[in-house]
Request: fold
Amino acid sequence: MMRIATMTITTAMPMLMTANKTPTTPRRRASAPAAATKQSQARVEISSGASAAQPAGDRNAIDESEAATLYRLMTWLSPSFPVGAFSYSSGIEWAVEAGDIVDAASLRGWLGSMLAEGSGFCDGVFLAHAHRATSSREDTALRDIAELAAAFVPSRERQLETSAQGRAFIDIARAAWNCEGLDRMISNCGGAIVYPVAVGLVSAAHAIALASTMHGFFHALTSNWISAGARLIPLGQTDSQRVLALLEPTVVATAKRALTATLDDLGSATFRADLAGMRHETQYTRLFRS
Reply:
């Protein structure tokens, strides 16, 4: 009896002490779906390395390796990188002279075809295969790809354009951005190294991802073509940027195709652009070398 009385008094005392307090609204218990969502979010934050005390801005930071990759790609594929890209038009100069390209809309159509169905796509395929052969140390395959790419160009001036830029890219990479094994890979090619093969080889030697290299290459290629068209038509800076923006879906789609294409998929259907490159050789007044 004494034990029961003690328990009754102990239980009643807190109730008496809180009887005069203002009642508060009871806290609603989280529903099962909401609780599961919070647990899922917590797991995502833990798996991504984010903590509750970590500032939001730090979650978007990149590590040193990613920063180095971005720095090198932006440098190598910048208009200021001295490969002489500004002096070539890939036949655009003749197309303007012939009246095929007269404004921003016609320039966009011409370049869209060159990218998706012409030399743009083919260069992307050669870049991808050169990158893979270099990464896997397949010396014979790399030599075959370099030889095929050098023989694939349709005209003398186009040959000059891609081989001169490739040689310049290789020379500058060896002088300022050399790395272990690069010289051996270059010597394995055994001859002329055209521009897309040079970009694929050097980026692979520096362990830069193929997809990033591909998109950077296509952006540089398209920007140089637009720059040539802007000087020849001429176009203003705003119209030039509009053309670049409108070609973005074509660039993305072409890069995606080139990343998965085989060497058997190589081919061009831009006959007018190929003829423009040939006819530019005898054009009377010329600003560009191709």
